[in-house]
Amino acid sequence: MSSVRLVILEPSKVGTQHITLIEGYLRAILGSAALRAVYRLEFLASPSTFRSLSPDLQAAVHHRTVPVMNPEKRRLVLKSLLEFLVVARHMLTMRQGDVLLVTCVLPPALIGIEWVNRLLRRRGLVITLHGEIEGLFDPSLQRPSSYGFWIAKWMRWRKRDSSLDLLVIDDFIKQRLLSSFPEKLAADQVHVAYHPVTAFPGSGRDEADDIPRVAFIGYRTRFKGYDLFEQLAAEIATVRFMAIGGGASVDVRTAEAAPLADNAGYMNEIARCAISFFPYTGGYTCSLSAALLDALSAGVHVLATSRPCFVGMAEYLGPDFVTIVDSPAEARRFISDEQWVKAKRAGQALRLQRLATSHYGLDGVRACFERFCLPSAAAELNAYEH
What we know:
The strands form 2 sheets. Strands 3-2-1-4-5-6-7 form a 7-stranded parallel β-sheet, sandwiched between helices. The protein is globular, with a radius of gyration of 22 Å. The protein has 16 helices and 14 strands. It is an alpha/beta fold. The two termini are about 20 Å apart.
């Protein structure tokens, strides 16, 4: 067995939090004969995260427990300190050629990791960035009590010659970071491993689906444009407007609600829809929407405003998957067009087929890990052996 390790460390989440990403990454790595020939895979996480993995993954990965504080406890200082200590400990145990991939970390902990690595100069240390990098672009998030304050501090203090590499979950995120911070980030310091998206075909439609459905998925907040969704529900009678999330599926026009017992029920409700509508007015400048990933998983066509998150997805997947609108009037025109809506509902199966062969499928994610792990591993091992 190889003595060089690829260590996946999750010091921030518990239970099913981020489990889709974690499972996808583990499956992609285990599915790579090239990676398995070089590395011994180790998975470090809380016991509840490990128990949330599928049984076949539990049997396939070597798991070691690390202490993790549930983010729902909202103890920012203590949680950040614990995350930093867990990562720092494993930085100290890294050997020549190892890769240590940290799948999530709070911004204050990231600052500490960056500073420590200025002294250690560990190569192969990679930190995954998620929605916290929105704080780099939104001044309203840069208050001292907000994560945006700390992520902005980290970027100001980072040096371009840092040996700490970064991992992001889509191309548009890497492009935005490099173009916004050229004095802090080099292209070879920022890697992409796409967020895995697994096709979920749903359990089929019933007679109640004769009227096409339009979904609003997730939290019903102002910057996500839920008020526009309600307005269109009052104006357009040819479709049903469904608010899906928070444990229920609600018909916005009638207020009739159906409970969603589990994730399968939630995904089935999305899969019953012809369109998923994302009228967002802010955010997602440099991050992916989890609700968008759920819509893609169900093969549902996405109608969205021109936030970078949706534009990036539209550029890659094309008009069969994503339609971008610039105004409420344009969104109203599309949703009012019965033929357009029916055509999008009919294309669900084809979208699911394409999704599996896209770079969000396991083969695409596996290729990402091979690109950023194997060239550096070959160089490190050659230097170490000679």
